């Protein structure tokens, strides 16, 4: 298990919660070995003191002073995090990649690593309430976690772009459970013909398995941003969106994918636990995570 406690890619009011979330995931889920990637420990200069575990981001009419001329918050720190993650993966070998974060930006190096290894045989399954297909120009927040997938496909800040041979293909990409899409992202999805499987279609895994099979891939990298879940069922979310998946349906989808295709890697991101005192049942989310990933986690 690669534990990447990166928060710098988040555009939410409480990104520091992702650090605790990464370490908590690393402790909750089984693994034969664990590697913690060293990430800048400097705290957010503008932390959110609100104990609400699920803050709702709101548009800010004033420019964020942390947003660089590139349009990306904390880009220098993200580049250092990427280098550190790539260094850790250099010694990974042929084992299946298993990454926990942190914001969605932790997926850059693992997915690029899988794409380089499996080439046209790899499909990326993106379980996420958001497609993360913005560019620095179209992003409303400057948070890189909303640009990760677009960058992996070759359109993002130069400092974070994977080499062409390390990029997955949009033709072998499936968005699953996505329901909050910005206009520029929608235009890109339509232009590239990217496959989508809705929350309703995920009542059974059949449509998802069929969509992946249609790509011709034999291997899958599965990305899970936990905000794909319904916030009524799971509380420790960085950017909650209503109308998400029931945990049992996510577990069934993961099981079906790993039965039908070889697993190249799994990434779990955006776990943002709040203070225990603010939660009605602080153990519920932990139990839910164990149940969802019981069939696919190594160890």
Offer a quick outline of the entry.
By secondary structure, this protein is an alpha/beta fold.
List the helices and strands and how they pair.
Layout: E1 2-4, H1 17-28, E2 35-36, H2 75-90, E3 97-101, H3 108-118, E4 122-127, H4 148-152, E5 173-176, H5 183-192, E6 195-197, H6 206-213, E7 219-225, H7 247-260, E8 262-269, H8 284-292
Parallel strand pairs: 1-2, 1-3, 3-8, 4-5, 4-7, 5-6, 7-8
What labels would you give this structure?
Arginase, Chain A, eight-stranded parallel β-sheet, 8 helices
Q: Could you explain the architecture of this structure?
A:
With 299 residues, the chain is an alpha/beta fold. It has one domain (2-41, 68-296): 3-Layer(aba) Sandwich (Arginase, Chain A), CATH 3.40.800. It is 28% helix and 13% strand. The protein is built from eight helices and eight strands. It has helices at residues 17-28, 75-90, 108-118, 148-152, 183-192, 206-213, 247-260, 284-292; strands at 2-4, 35-36, 97-101, 122-127, 173-176, 195-197, 219-225, 262-269. It has an eight-stranded parallel β-sheet with strand order 2-1-3-8-7-4-5-6, with helices on both faces. Helix 4 (148-152) links the parallel strand 4 (122-127) and strand 5. Helix 7 (247-260) runs parallel beside helix 8. It is globular, with a radius of gyration of 17 Å. The model is unreliable at 44-67 (pLDDT under 50).
């Amino acid at each position: 298990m690669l534990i990447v406690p990166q928060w710098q890619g988040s555009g939410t009011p409480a990104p520091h919660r992702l650090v605790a979330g990464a370490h908590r995931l690393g402790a909750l889920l089984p693994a034969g070995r664990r590697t913690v990637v060293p990430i800048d420990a400097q705290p957010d200069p503008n932390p959110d003191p609100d104990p609400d575990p699920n803050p709702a981001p709101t548009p800010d009419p004033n420019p964020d002073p942390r947003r660089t001329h590139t349009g990306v918050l904390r880009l220098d720190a993200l580049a250092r995090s990427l280098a550190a993650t790539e260094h850790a993966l250099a010694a990974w070998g042929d084992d299946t990649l298993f990454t926990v974060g942190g914001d969605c930006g932790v997926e850059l190096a693992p997915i690029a690593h899988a794409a380089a290894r499996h080439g046209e045989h790899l499909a990326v399954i993106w379980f996420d309430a958001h497609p993360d297909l913005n560019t620095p120009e179209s992003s409303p927040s400057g948070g890189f976690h909303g640009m990760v997938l677009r960058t992996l496909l070759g359109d993002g800040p130069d400092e974070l772009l994977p080499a062409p041979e390390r990029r997955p293909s949009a033709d072998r990409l499936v968005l699953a459970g996505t329901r909050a899409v910005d206009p520029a992202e929608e235009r890109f999805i339509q232009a590239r013909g990217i496959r989508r499987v809705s929350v309703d279609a995920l009542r059974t895994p059949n449509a998802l398995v069929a969509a992946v099979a249609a790509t011709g891939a034999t291997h899958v990298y599965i990305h899970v941003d936990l905000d794909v879940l319904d916030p009524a069922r799971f509380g420790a979310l960085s950017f909650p969106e209503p109308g998400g998946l029931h945990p049992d349906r996510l577990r069934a989808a993961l099981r079906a994918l790993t039965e039908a295709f070889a697993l190249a890697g799994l990434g779990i991101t955006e776990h943002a636990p709040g203070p225990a005192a603010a939660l009605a049942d602080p153990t519920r989310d932990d139990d839910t995570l164990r149940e969802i990933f019981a069939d696919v986690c190594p160890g």
